């Protein structure tokens, strides 16, 4: 782990049932690689703050100028795809004399930072004036992801599409899988909100809120995930993944992973039956699962957070810490 415990770092990220918690989790992952506490200014309501605390973050409130003056951080990390919101914080960070770092997906967000990090497989952001780290080598994932050991269950499927409106789809997918494969067992990770009905089959288990899905990834042979952080995590773990774009912006990412043989995907419109068909095919073909696992690990090695942390530390020290 990069030794940066003497750096003072403030993170800014949005989170919520509809947007998900991927931006917040990515900030936490970079904090862990830096060896600092994840101190986060959230864009979200009080329930989101409770979730962030449950995930191990420290939450602070206030506008950018007031918070930066009070906390006086060395580094401000902004992970927000809405350019107008990101720009407000980035400009305040520059006025405060911070090193400003911007984390991106698919090039979305404000690029007016000292360091832009975009670990996307495609459509990477480029810094307007500062330094850029782009491509999957810099995908910021939890540094402890590779530490989780476990023996894979050849018939275990993890469905992790997040909570909120995606919980119902996740449950429908789980029910379609067990109906189509007699030996399949499905564990559904629904984030911080559950479905409106209990599982209809004893081979389906609903997982309550968890800080991460590392243990679940370690035991599953197939993972049904969205097109965000969880897809990158599945590849880093070598799990055969079926990518489900839960929002339109995720479609290019899922398509890119499929094109490189690191995941399977479903055509529009997404249905529980089409996702289940992909899962059943993978459960029935161990050689294909192994091949996809190798391709995924080759594409996403799980070391991106450390590379990003090294760059943050180097630039902060070169600029003179407060």
Can you put this structure into words, describing what you see?
This protein has 322 residues and is α/β, with parallel strands linked by helices. The protein folds into 2 domains: 9-141 and 302-319, Rossmann fold; 145-299, Glycogen Phosphorylase B (Rossmann fold), CATH 3.40.50.2000. The protein has helices at residues 22-34, 46-54, 64-71, 83-95, 166-180, 214-219, 229-237, 251-259, 272-283, 286-299, 304-319; strands at 9-14, 39-43, 58-60, 75-78, 99-104, 115-118, 131-134, 156-160, 185-189, 204-207, 222-225, 240-243, 264-265. It has a 7-stranded parallel β-sheet, with helices on both faces. A 6-stranded parallel β-sheet has the order 10-9-8-11-12-13, with helices on both faces. Helix 5 links the parallel strand 8 (156-160) and strand 9 (185-189). Helix 1 crosses helix 11 and helix 5 packs across helix 9. The longest helix is centred in the C-terminal third of the chain and has 16 residues, at 304-319. It is globular. The chain starts with 8 loop residues before the first strand and ends with a helix. 52% of the residues are buried.
Principal-axes geometry comes out as globular
Q: Strand-residue fraction?
A: 15-25%
Helix content: 25-40%
Distance between the termini: 22 Å
| Physical arrangement of strands within the biggest beta sheet | 3-2-1-4-5-6-7
Overall mean confidence score, pLDDT? 90
Assembly type: single chain
Please compute the radius of gyration using only Cα atoms: 19 Å
The CATH superfamily of the largest domain bears the name Glycogen Phosphorylase B
Integer count of domains: 2
Largest sheet: 7 strands, parallel
Q: Give me the strand/helix succession.
A: EHEHEHEHEEEEHEEHEHEHEHHH
CATH topology heading of the largest domain? Rossmann fold
